[in-house]
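Note to self: keep these together.
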Amino acid sequence: MRLVIIPLLFAAGCLRPQSGSDDGGQTSTGDSSTSETSEPTATTVEPGSCGDGAQDPGEACDDGNDVDEDGCPSGAQGQCKMVGKCGDGIVWAGAEACDDGNMDGGDGCEADCTVTSAECGNGVMEPGEGCDDGNDVEEDACPSGAAGQCKAAASCGDGFVWTGMEACDDGNADETDACPSGDAGQCLADASCGDGFTWAGMEGCDDGNMDDTDACPSGVGACVEAAKCGDGYVEMGGEDCDDKNSQDLDACNNACASSRWVFVTSGSPVDSGNLGGIAGADGYCQTFATDAGLPGTYKAWLTGADPATAPATRFASTEFKGWYLLPSDPPTPVALGWADLTSPNQDIPANYLQNAISADELGMSPINGFAWTNTKTDGTQLSATEHCADWSADSGNGRSGKVSTNATDPSWTENAAFDCSVGLRLYCFQVE
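Structure:
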């Protein structure tokens, strides 16, 4: 047997796939239909560019990504130009707390890329400070002491009283506490009556003045409560009076309306119906009242030829809500206001008066007789003709009212006609 040795020669680059052979070094089985081919993996980075993972000429590093914040800044800012380090202006995630692009200290980012620790009171505004005025005073424009810590410039509501700018500061924005601190109060003053802020739990009202005669008595009243009848302060436009008591039949009733006197004259002013007209009759009433020491202005319950002279017009009292009182001791109520005087009583509709007008200017009663009136219960003209020639003659007839202790029905003013040659009394009403 003969042994044959066939020498094999290897040279670089000699082992190549032959034309027609399968890629990837696949071995033929003799059946081309069963051969398999593996596909190459695609890459998103062009060869020779930053981020391809290969350090190309001109690159200081390439870690195969486009992230700036790692050991090789490879994004739009870094561009693989240098290895990440402190001072490059790019914060290396996990390795640096800051990087301001320089190696200076005390500027917020130290030379080792750690954040500069703020020192309140050194006069330098550092990271984390809202102000720094170089001291440790809490009561100036920058609260810098142990509590303020340069966190923010002074402002109303921060809890520090800014000297010369604030009178108080309780650390909130509440207008209704001891230091009004909201947009309106602005810590300008401690809460007080008259500042316009109602101090919760201490004041019942506060309208920003020291007036006792408005809706919030703020002078002597001290803002204790909103104005009301019985508080002792006369509210202008709302009360006629306020005597701070519960006596209804005195000069100021329980609705804070002033009372007015009413009486029948103690005698006839003249011996006929010639009273000198309506003006003359009013004059007689005023004289009787003044001589008796009764205050105010008085007019006669009397209507002449002109309907406009009737009490409903002439008295100008239709809005009056106080008591009409007889000047007796104690005072006797006749009617509660004009509406009660001129309307049927609620309890006894047949009656108009709560008590008859049977006391004179001195409060003396009972008096019985008649008074010139020519006036209906509603205060308007009763007769267009029976008025003693407009109360200027002693001839003709004039209408009267009955003066009696039981004259509470319409007869008190709508009664018989008398000859004008006789003298009758007058009903006199205080009008102001």
